[in-house]
Amino acid sequence: MSNLVKDRPAVTGSAPRPGSLRQPRLPRWAPAAFALGSAVVGVAIGLVAGLDSRIQWGLIAALVFVLGSYIASTVVEGRRQAKDRLATSLVWVAFLLAVIPLVSLLYETVKRGSKALNADFLNHSMAGMLDDQAGGGVYHAIIGTLEQVGLATAIAAPIGLLTAIYLVEYGRGALAKAVTFFVDVMTGIPSIVAGLFILSFWILWLDFDYSGFAGAMALAILMMPVVVRSTEEMLKLVPNELREASLALGVPKWRTILKVVLPTAIGGIATGVMLAVARIAGETAPIVLLVFGSKTINNNPFEDPQSSLPYYVYEQWTAGQDASYDRAWAAALVLIAFVMILNLVARGIARWKAPKTGR
């Protein structure tokens, strides 16, 4: 065996090039150093050029960071690694450009909304309050939002779930394609269009009054395609082997869907429904058209105008008084907290109902 190894001819042309196995690398702290240096350079250039906007400083710093990282990596690590660092730098810059406005909006809302947000604000309505008076609350708007979103969910969730079951389990041919097409169209319609549809059909044609239920129907139209799409994707993730095993035991298809498919996908379905609820909770245009607003508490969404958090923010902001501005920011903070709670609930349901792995 040793003789065979000794007699094996040497492979020519396969020797590693000098330095190819030990390519120089930038230290791990280099990106942080580049970011800090770019921030300093961006501020310095902004001050020298007389730029007053911090946004302009940030854009200059981002450009310096991307170019500096690419040039340093090209000199030290070579072109191939420099391209990788360039892509990484662009991803980080895009991430910061997306996060900074969100953080700024949240900071501004908390800063201004905390002035009027207290226990009295959450427990009182605007009955008998003038726009320029301090005080008042958002209790009636919270009740309206909960009732309108609850009614919209009660309408849209079953219809969306059944539509998704049809598309995944039964849908074939032209009808399924038509349903899919209209679901895609409904996903992109503006909220004002849904409000105008309910206004013309429910109020102008059928001669019903403005009410929270009218707004809930418009919100249901906006919610349905989101529920259909999320439920459809969750049902597609259920392995076909589970369906086949159930059918092989003689279980009818409807019972297979009810006892096997839906329990398997229930976590994703619930998450999709909660995200759809969070999506419609802040819609303003249909509420302005259909609910008509009220300063008093109305616990009946089927009769008389009713307020909601988005309408309350719109109403207080258009009042144009310092006290109303504070109430508008506080109501916006309450609405953000409401949507955040819904998202946290959706994540909790997804984690709770996620398939258990491991032993």
Kindly describe this structure.
The protein is an all-alpha fold and 359 residues long. It folds into 2 domains: 90 residues, no CATH class; 214 residues, MetI-like (MetI-like fold), CATH 1.10.3720.10. It has 14 helices and no strands. Helix 6 runs parallel beside helix 9, helix 9 packs across helix 11 and helix 10 runs antiparallel to helix 11. The longest helix is centred in the N-terminal third of the chain and has 35 residues. The chain is flat, with a radius of gyration of 29 Å.
Give the number of domains: 2
- How many helical elements? 14
Q: Could you state the oligomeric state of the chains shown?
A: single chain
Provide the CATH architecture of the largest domain. Answer: Orthogonal Bundle
Percent range of helical residues:
over 70%
Percent of residues in beta strands:
under 5%
| Radius of gyration from CA coordinates | 29 Å
Q: Give the tally of β-strands.
A: 0
Q: What is the residue-averaged pLDDT?
A: 84
Characterize the main sheet. none
End-to-end gap: 47 Å
Looking at CATH, the homologous superfamily of the largest domain is MetI-like
In the CATH scheme, the class of the largest domain would be Mainly Alpha
CATH topology term of the largest domain: MetI-like fold
Low-confidence stretches are: 1-16
Q: What is the global morphology? A: flat
Order of helix and strand elements from N to C terminus: HHHHHHHHHHHHHH
Structural class: mainly alpha
Function: Part of the binding-protein-dependent transport system for phosphate; probably responsible for the translocation of the substrate across the membrane.
Subcellular location: Cell membrane
Region (Disordered): 1-24
Pfam families: BPD_transp_1
